[in-house]
Amino acid sequence: MQAAFLVAPEGTEEVELTQPWQAVVAAAGGPTLVSTHTGKVQAFHHLDRAATFPVDLTVDEATAADFDGLVLPGGVANPDALRLDPRAVAFIRSFFDAGKPVAAICHAPWTLIEADVVRGRTLTSWPSLRTDIRNAGGTWVDEQVKICTAGPNTLITSRRPADLEAFCAAFVSEFSH
């Protein structure tokens, strides 16, 4: 199982990167950190700086064909920065176009909205995104994990760090198929 993790240079909620990353490793998979710039990304624990992580590939170097699925960690600043980068949005959309599974947690569905891939889909997120999701044509539900197959791919979404165990189990199972 090869999983791409797309994050902005700053703002990723650390646990939403590290716990899913470890879930991929525990499943004998290969996680790859993809970002919009080379070097390292700065993760956060809420509003405080946390660890940095080395970027493996940029969105210009990576393709959906190289991976079994895409993981989109949250944090408020991370998806907000990614949705402003057309290359990141195109990378996300390419997984939907290829019919490959995508897993997004917390605020990460902002990037899905920008990629115009939530219309007709049912998903969950951090509660403050519910109106954004509805306005983009999606159906928002308040569930620990939502697996939606009503589209070109499987979309796995989750609300918050407290849901990470269920989120990781769901996307690892889907990416392993």
TrEMBL record:
Stretches assigned to the DJ-1/PfpI domain: 2-173
Keywords: Glutamine amidotransferase, Transferase
Statement: the UniProt record of this protein carries the keyword Transferase: yes
Record-linked InterPro entries: C56_PfpI-like, Class_I_gatase-like, DJ-1/PfpI
Cross-referenced Gene3D superfamilies: 3.40.50.880
GO molecular function: transferase activity
Pfam families per UniProt: DJ-1_PfpI
Top-rank lineage group of the source organism: Bacteria
Listed CDD domains: GATase1_PfpI_like
Family classification: Belongs to the peptidase C56 family.
Protein name per the record: Type 1 glutamine amidotransferase
